[in-house]
């Protein structure tokens, strides 16, 4: 086996360590904002590549029409109503069978989302009589919704219902219309005719809703303060005051991409964050792109954040002129490669390297078990945990958007 193989092995083993991105989080704000609030975790899903079942769970359940459906028809959620397509994942509502209507629901595998920026690229259903929803959920009084009803569209424009379910809405039979947590907002487009991005930014002080990166509405009362999960669903119960219908034919809405940037409430994940980012390195905080079709946020450094915006237990790096660890790693890696290339030249002239290779000196240094085990164990530690305790962590995020619709 040639020395060139070991050089190549060493170089590519170093690449994940040298060029890792976003270890210290994701910034919502532009670089010229006075403060750069950021989130520590992300869930980035491209549904055009299939439904990642380790990240999203299709639901099976039934709600009878005569108990909790809140309408004349019951609801039957089925895994078979969640369908992969090249355009993305489809959530189907079926024409009624007897007293029930088939529906679809997806729930994130992460239950530890505690404040964040959540975005979905969707094309809504084009048949009257169903409700399509993109929302955060902890329980029936800790919920943030963007809900779409085809019956509210006109020829050129659409509508979105922006909702915070709260104890006040619960007291009114889960009707938020007469609470501060409701806004029926017009859209300058039909949500069923083309792809559009929908987003809400949730912080301790407010929830800001967006359509195609334009600010729609801000709510500041009854803000949820408990971690939970993301959900997508498409349903009908025949309620004339909400979903309408049910539809006479099967109908679907499609989701192509979903990006979530958030703080984790899980103590082990928070510890993993502090391990990979013991002191916040600005070169490892990525600005969240407004183009949701990007599969990864760009590794563009942001400005130095206010200390008050850092996650608990983290510190600022202090002197920004200090070389970053990324730069030092690149320099070390380049120096090692140059040194090994020089050694190859010496070996070519003196023919003294074969005994060394036979003794596997380089494999122990380059590609042995210690190096590979170290990389995989760190990756596993960051991913293996599930939700647990929580604590509030992030103050207000400055809103970004072109204009109010």
Examine the secondary-structure arrangement and name the CATH architecture of the domain at 53-264. Sandwich
Number of strands: 20
Structural class: alpha+beta
Which value, in Å, is the CA radius of gyration?
25 Å
- Assembly type of the chains comes to single chain
Q: Strand fraction band?
A: 25-35%
Shape estimate? globular
Overview of the structural elements:
With 405 residues, the protein is of the alpha+beta class. It is built from seven helices and 20 strands. It has helices at residues 3-18, 167-171, 267-276, 325-350, 354-358, 361-366, 369-383; strands spanning 25-27, 38-39, 41-46, 56-58, 61-63, 74-77, 82-85, 88-93, 100-108, 113-123, 131-139, 142-149, 158-165, 182-187, 196-202, 207-211, 214-219, 229-235, 251-264, 285-287. The strands form three sheets. Strands 4, 5, 6, 9, 11, 12, 13, 14 and 18 form a nine-stranded mixed beta sheet that branches. Strands 3, 7, 8, 10, 15, 16, 17 and 19 form an eight-stranded antiparallel beta sheet that branches. The longest helix is centred in the last third of the chain and has 26 residues, at 325-350. Pfam families: Glyco_hydro_16.
């Amino acid at each position: 086996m040639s020395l060139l193989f070991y050089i190549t092995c060493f170089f590519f083993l170093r690449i994940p360590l040298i060029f890792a991105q976003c270890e210290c989080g994701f910034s919502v704000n532009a670089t010229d904002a006075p403060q750069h609030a950021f989130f520590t975790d992300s869930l980035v899903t491209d549904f055009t590549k299939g439904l990642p079942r380790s990240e999203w769970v299709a639901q099976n359940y039934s709600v009878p029409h005569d108990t909790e459906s809140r309408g004349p028809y019951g609801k039957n959620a089925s895994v078979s109503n969640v369908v992969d397509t090249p355009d993305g994942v489809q959530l189907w509502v079926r024409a009624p069978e007897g007293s029930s209507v088939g529906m679809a629901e997806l729930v994130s595998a992460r239950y530890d989302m505690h404040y964040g920026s959540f975005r979905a690229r969707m094309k809504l259903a084009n048949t009257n009589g169903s409700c399509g929803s993109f929302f955060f959920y902890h329980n029936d009084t800790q919920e943030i919704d963007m809900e779409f009803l085809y019956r509210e569209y006109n020829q050129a424009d659409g509508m979105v219902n922006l909702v915070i379910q709260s104890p006040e809405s619960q007291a009114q039979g889960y009707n938020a219309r007469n609470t501060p947590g409701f806004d029926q907002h017009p859209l300058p487009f039909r949500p069923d005719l083309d792809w559009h991005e929908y987003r809400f930014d949730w912080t301790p002080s407010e929830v800001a809703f967006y359509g195609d990166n334009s600010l729609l509405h801000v709510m500041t009362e009854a803000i949820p303060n408990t971690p939970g999960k993301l959900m997508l669903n498409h349903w009908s119960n025949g309620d004339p005051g909400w979903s309408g219908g049910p539809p006479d034919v099967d109908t679907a809405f499609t989701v192509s991409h979903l990006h979530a940037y958030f703080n984790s409430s899980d103590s082990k994940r928070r510890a993993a964050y502090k391990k990979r980012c013991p002191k916040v390195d600005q070169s490892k905080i990525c600005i969240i792109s407004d183009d949701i079709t990007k599969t990864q946020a760009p590794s563009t450094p942001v400005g130095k954040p206010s200390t008050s915006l850092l996650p608990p237990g983290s510190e600022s790096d202090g002197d920004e002129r200090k070389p970053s660890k990324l730069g030092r790693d690149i320099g070390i890696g380049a120096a090692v490669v140059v040194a090994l290339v020089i050694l190859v030249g010496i070996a070519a002239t003196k023919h003294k390297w074969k005994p060394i290779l036979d003794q596997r000196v380089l494999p122990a240094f380059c590609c042995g078990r210690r190096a590979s085990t170290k990389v995989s164990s760190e990756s596993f530690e960051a991913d293996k945990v599930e939700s647990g305790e929580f604590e509030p962590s992030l103050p207000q995020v400055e809103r970004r958007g072109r204009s109010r619709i």
